[in-house]
Amino acid sequence: MWSFAAQSNNIIYRAMTNKQYLIKYLDELNVSENDIEIILLKGGLDGEATVDIYACDIAVYRRFSAVLKSAAKNVSEGGYSVSWNMEAVKLFYASLCNELGVENVLVVRPKVGNKSDFW
To answer: Are 104 and 93 in contact (CB under 8 A)?
Structure first.
């Protein structure tokens, strides 16, 4: 991904960083910059390195608890309130899991046990 800035009729291209990607990618979920730093740190990613989309997406998948913590907040102050549609957050996570081809750990699946010993 590239961003650009015009400077005296010249266009300067700069590669997007891992941190910039995560800020844009998680913007709708209102994830704080501190949580993004934790995702980068625990994911072993350099925030200032050129974006590695797959590595960033895997880091979000593995550290989704930080995303959920941000999205689970309901804030109300002075007649202004912010709440989250947790179904939309779960849909975001399910989509990410599907894209990465990994297990969606938020889905509760029934466990089947072997009860043949009791017959």
So the answer is: yes
